[in-house]
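Operator note (shift B, R.M.): manual run for Sensory/regulatory protein RpfC requested after the automated queue skipped it. Running by hand, logging everything below so the morning shift can see what happened. Input copied straight from the record, untouched. If output looks odd, do not overwrite the archive copy; leave it for review.
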Amino acid sequence: MLNFGSLSKYLLLKVVMYSLMLSLVTSLVNGWITYQDALARQQAQVDSVLAAYRSTLTKAIWEVDFEAAKQQMQGLERFSAILSAKIISNGAPISYQKAGADLMQESPLLSFPLLANDGSRELAKWEIRLDENALQHDVIRQATRFALIMSAELLLIAIFLFLLLRRIISMPIQALSAHVSSMNEARLGIAAPLPSEKHHHEIHDLAYGISKLQSELLTQFTLRDQAALELAEHRDQLNQLLVQQEHQLDILLNNMADGGAVLTGGGRIMFANPALARLMGNDNARHMIGSWPLQWLSRPSWPSIAERLLSHDSLLGESLLLNRIDAQSLPVEASFSVLERNEQGEPIRVQVMVRDLTARIETERVLVEAKETALQASQAKSAFLANMSHEIRTPLNAVLGFTSLLTDTKLDSHQQQYIHSIHEAGTALLTLLNDILDFSKIEAGQLKLEHIEFDLRSLLEDTQDIIASQAQRKGLELICVIDASVPSGLLGDPSRLRQIVLNLLNNAVKFTPQGEIITRARVVAFDEEEVRVRIEVKDNGIGIAPEIQKQLFRPFQQADVSTTRRFGGTGLGLSICRRLASAMDGEIGVHSQVGEGALFWFEVQLGRSKLAPRPIINTALAGKTVMLMSPSAGNRQKLHDDLRLIGCQTVLLENETALMANLLAHEHHADVVLIDLPLAAEIAIDLPSRIHAIETYQRTPILLSVTQGAVGQGAMAEKAGYAAYLTKPIHFDALQKCLAEVLRPVDQAEPQPMLTLHRIAEIDATLRNAVLLVEDNPMNQKIGVLLLEKLGCRVDVANNGLEAIEAVKTHYYDLVLMDCQMPELDGYDATEHIRQLPIEMARVPIVALTANAFAEDRDRCLAAGMDDFMSKPVQLNMLEAILHKWVSPEKPH
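Run finished. Output pasted below as returned.
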């Protein structure tokens, strides 16, 4: 008996069903075709009848030969499709009926007219009925025979296909299914059965795939068994290791210095190590097992700890007070860790580690005492440094002040050299003193930065002035280039910023034998509140080796020992600069190669001033053309930038030949001619006369810029016809005022004196020349008066605070320079009294003048109501900067 599987049954059902469906569809199509053929044959018989009998019947009717017509009608029996026929005319009807046919059936009636030969009239109507029953019987007979034959053929084909598919597909798949169903780990080595056909097809691939899968599974099971054996061996090793570690842990717990315990969720001790027992005064740790929290914990309470452990897995650095068995309290530091929780998340096992704090508390007490002792020593050192600073700065003020005044007197070359040596020695001593004080404050963490408004351009130019004479004696050009992106109003600590720049400039002058030192400033980043400013100082000095650059910003470090011997210095300056730059959220660095000079740079974060920036462009100078001649590319670029910022147009020329050629060619009309002379260059005496000889330049002012004015050089320039004689470095404001003054309309009949920087300062000082100097030291009074008068100021002197108050009450002053330490009434109290006077007296600017240079002294001055702070010794450029800052021409009298 054949064993039909589900797939075979499914295939048999589908084959038979589709065969019957195909037979049905084929039979229906054949029936429709047979019916159409029968209709065509029926119509053909009708057409044959009409062709054969219509003309003869028409003739018989025309001749009224009804017998002939009847005979012809009987001839229709030869046509099986004709059921009946009838001729209707004026005579008797002539008819025909098919013998044995069902005359009652519904069949179509066809009517044809019989016309006369000429077609003029109808002789009769010929009605013919077709035999539909015969047609249908014939169609059904033929269709049925076709359906039976087709069904038999398709069924035979289906059975053949079924048997073929069963042999090729069903039986191999059935065998594979039985093989897979009976598969287990023991039968994995038996290959899957292959089909009996030689031809390779997909079932062969399936059998091969099953065999391959069996092989891989067998391999995996083999590897599994091997891994299980290895795992068992490894587990045994781990168990041995665990036993060893448990033993080591027991040794560790028993010998560790810190106490350890495992607690229940309620705080009872489940385990305690010997160290904890010793801390608690117990000789056996087992005696502590089962102790309740009230027995071992003094404070805090265990519920407060347990409540915190509900939301934390660990608590670190907890301060506890334990109860010893001798009723003493033991301070400890504890750490709690939750080892296990219940389903509600509550701790059920907690580990605690404790460390005795008795020794630490004692150490901290000793450290606090040592700190207080060190603080007292630091305060004593600070007081000593402050007193030493005051005692050193007071005579140093006299030394530097008188040497500055002596420099401008008539001295021979040897005397000038001696004065310069004294001034340099005093300046070096002042720098050393400042470095020591600053480094001391930085190391003590007492560095405080101000946040006040200042102008970076003025700060850099004033800083260059401080070292200008030193640089000029070495034959160095100082150039300051400020990018237009730098705002005029910034917020920060200008004194500390100046300190960094001054240190870098001092180093550049010290290590540069000849050439130029260029200071540049530009903005590298900004937002609405702050700007990040980068300042660079570039020289062409001896340079620094790359391996030495990393050490430059450490305390007491210079390039090498020979550098210290040759150039001097403590090595503190750059270290202080690095600390100051870092305090201003910045950084400092250097780029250099040996023999190629150095570029020191630093970046600082500064605030933007909320005040409206002062206008730079002078409307009176806007659009004026300045013809600038300078052999130095650096100076040419610096003056070009400044002139463009003022609002002037510039024509840049490199030498005198190009200047004269341009003037004679009338390529550009110049309102001013500016001659910038390089180092050691002689004044062109005949140049002004040659320029004025040109018709269009007879009244054109000619300005002369020199690096260092020799004795009698100014008089020589005035005699030659120069309108201004300016010594470099030239400030931006001084250049602007000089241009405004030489272009100011004047009476041509009156000769105008040649402008100099001092003359510009005198013109500027006519609006701000009333200064009150409050100073008790006669020597400092004399120096202060001489310096202020040199700047064109009218000076009154008060010996103490009481005299200062009376002077302010009775006279108007543009500025008060107030010493802080004076007899009868010091500067702090005097300032407070002045600020309580009526508003027109109380608003006078007061600048502190003291030998103390600490930040707390500055803060005390500002807290007393003073506006600014200037430490002794007072130098001319510092005093000029203070006057420029607080007594500007815009302030009303």
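Quick read of the result: The first strand starts at residue 82 and ends at 88. The first helix runs from residue 6 to 62.
Leaving this for review. - R.M.
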